[in-house]
Write a structure and sequence with these properties.
Length: 526
């Protein structure tokens, strides 16, 4: 029984693993055929769609390659002031630049270092202003037309003394009772007061002049002693002492006076036969001469102004345009650069532009990097030149390359020249310079800049109806007109009379019976 069950189980398993029946095989084949047909249909559809995008009819091809339809370029009609103008470029520069080169005021100073700075770039410098301190020495500015060329000290006379006296008086330090141009006690006092106000020791003339004063004082003392002695003898009724034989009597050479510091002439030796009154008169005469010598020595001794301390400038306030050093740095050449008298502006015109420009015309000045507009007038129209516009450079103080104290010259180059212009200075092309007088002083920040100038040849009038020059058309009969376009695209020809042209705009007056208003669109191109 058991063996039969096992046989049946083996038979059932054999049935399950046997090959499929013929009916089931045919169904599977039909399914695979249907899937293949569907895939092929899809490929054909995609290919047809791709081909359809590539295949164009002649009409479609012509439409795609045809030029676009004409369109109009329009611009609005405006109401504005139209003035004839000349555009050009201009250079801003200082008319005079002063380069300050410090020098030593004493032989004790062996090296110059910046020990203090009193100003920075952009500062305004007034009279009496401390500019810097160099190796402990002050350097200050005073108003005056002539640069310092010598030390000004007691006993000095001349126009530079007058310059110093006037500058100190402007600051409140009077030199009375001294005469103008004469350095006396009054000027010495004014100098002393000024230095104390600055906070610096008062410089003096030195040991040499002081020694002269000391020597002269000893002579006065000796002469006074001789007068007093002879006067006492006369009061006592004593006879004058006999004088030893002089050189004329003995024929012996006269010995030189001993170097005691006391002039021997201060006590004249009594001469035989002369009475006491004569000796007293001679002694008093000598005392008077010695007192005069003391006064002269004293006048040359005392407070002074070394040339190395002062910078005289003709116009103040001045502007600091450069500081070439810092505290502790050695001084090599120019330490400070100052400009005095404001900034100058020179425009450059081509020969064609210059023909219609005259002095007095209004000028608009455009600073392009800040978009700032300033105003001015044409002060002068110069002669054609190829020399770049630039001011003078004057060196004040110690020796500098190209010249010593007070050396002046023309500034080289043109820092503001605009490259690529037909009339750019420095290019060797002739141009006509025009000097511009600004309505207000130009700010120091414009120094060296190249600016846009617009010379207005006509005075500003009332606003007029204006259109771009490109909107004007002229027919065969010479009639000028514009083409107006409304919102619907309708074009209307409007006859006009043209007026002043400037900056690409032209004033127009529409013919009677026509209308042209600000805001209307006119054709300027296609």
């Amino acid at each position: 029984m058991t063996g039969k069950k096992a046989d049946r189980l083996r038979d059932a398993h054999s049935d399950d693993t046997a090959a499929p029946s013929p009916g089931r095989s045919r169904a599977a084949r039909r399914k695979r055929v249907l899937l293949a047909v569907a895939a092929g249909s899809a490929l054909v559809a995609v290919g047809g769609l791709g081909a359809a995008t590539l295949v164009k009819s002649p009409a479609e091809r012509a439409a795609r390659t045809a030029p676009p339809a004409n369109s109009l370029i329009t611009a609005p009609v405006t109401s504005q002031v139209v003035n004839q103008s000349v555009p050009t470029r201009g250079v801003v520069y200082p008319p005079t630049q002063y380069n300050i080169v410090p020098a030593a005021a004493s032989a004790d100073v062996t090296q110059l270092y910046v020990s203090k700075l009193g100003v920075k770039t952009g500062d305004s410098v007034a009279s009496g202003k401390l500019l810097a301190e160099v190796s402990g020495q002050p350097l200050f500015a005073l108003r005056g037309p002539v640069p310092a060329y010598r030390d000004i000290k007691p006993g000095s006379n001349g126009p530079d003394v007058t310059e110093l006296q006037d500058a100190l008086a402007e600051l409140g330090y009077s030199s009375r009772p001294d005469e103008k141009g004469s350095y006396g006690p009054g000027t010495a006092q004014a100098v002393s007061d000024f230095y104390r106000k600055l906070g610096y020791p008062v410089p003096v003339t030195g040991a040499t002049t002081q020694q002269a004063v000391d020597t002269a004082q000893k002579a006065v003392d000796a002469s006074q002693k001789a007068v007093d002695s002879l006067t006492a003898q006369k009061k006592a009724g004593a006879a004058p002492p006999a004088a030893p034989p002089g050189p004329a009597q003995t024929g012996a050479p006269q010995p030189s006076a001993p170097q005691t510091g006391i002039p021997q002439t201060g006590a004249p030796a009594p001469t035989a036969g002369l009475d006491l009154d004569r000796q007293i008169a001679d002694a008093k005469k000598q005392l008077t001469a010695d007192k005069a010598a003391l006064a002269k020595a004293g006048a040359a001794n005392g407070p002074m102004v070394p040339a190395a301390h002062v910078v005289f400038l003709p116009t103040l306030p001045a502007a600091v345009t450069a500081v070439n050093g810092s505290v502790g740095s050695p001084v090599n050449g120019t330490l400070l650069s100052l400009t005095s008298g404001g900034l100058s502006l020179t425009g450059q015109l081509t020969p064609g532009q210059a023909a219609g420009v005259k002095a007095g015309m209004a000028v608009e000045i455009l600073v392009e990097d800040t978009n700032t507009t300033l105003t001015g007038t044409v002060a002068e129209v110069g002669a054609p030149t190829t020399t770049p516009p630039a001011g003078k450079v004057i060196t004040l103080g110690g020796a500098a390359a190209g010249g010593g104290a007070g050396a002046g010259g023309t500034a080289g180059g043109n820092p503001g020249a605009a490259g690529g212009q037909p009339n750019a200075p420095g290019s060797g092309v002739s141009y006509t310079p025009i000097t511009i007088s600004p309505t207000a002083p130009l700010p120091a920040t414009l120094n060296g800049k190249n600016v846009r100038l617009t010379v207005l040849k006509d005075k500003a009038g009332a606003p007029v109806t204006a259109v771009p020059v490109a909107a004007i058309t002229t027919n065969a009969a010479g009639q000028t007109s514009v083409t107006k376009v409304d919102a619907a695209g309708t074009r209307t020809t409007v006859p006009v009379t043209t007026g002043v042209t400037a900056d690409g705009m032209v004033a127009v007056t529409p013919a009677a019976g026509t209308e042209l208003r600000p805001g209307d669109q006119v054709v300027v191109g296609k």
